[in-house]
Amino acid sequence: MKIDDFCKFLGISTPTIYNWKKEKPNLYTIVMNYKEEKLNNLSKEEEEILKLFKTLEQKEKEYYILDIKTRIAKKELDKK
């Protein structure tokens, strides 16, 4: 994930993250470690799904989230 995209994800401006690097190095380190460990460890499929998901309208997102949850619940019921 590019730094600009990461800043959007955090809800901050790009200069803010660079200011943190100078003025709040511990906070910057924590944030960047999160970025490296959590956000960059997606498989290609997960990255593609996330990219596509971000293009959807809010109602569409809600629909697909409910659909996924329903499918998981059905699998769990079928196992019993």
Entry keywords:
80 residues; mainly alpha; 0% strand; elongated
Provide structural commentary.
This protein has 5 helices and no strands. It is an all-alpha fold and 80 residues long. The protein folds into 2 domains: 1-41, no CATH class; 43-80. The N and C termini lie far apart (40 Å). The mean pLDDT is 90.
Q: Calculate Rg over CA atoms.
A: 17 Å
| Spans where pLDDT lies below 50 across 5 or more residues | none
Oligomer: single chain
The H-and-E topology, N to C, reads as HHHHH
Question: What is this structure's SSE topology?
Answer:
Blueprint: H1 3-10, H2 14-23, H3 25-39, H4 44-54, H5 58-79
Helix pairs in contact: 2-3
Quick recap:
This protein is an all-alpha fold and 80 residues long. 82% of the residues lie in helices and 0% in strands. The longest helix is centred in the C-terminal third of the chain and has 22 residues, at 58-79.
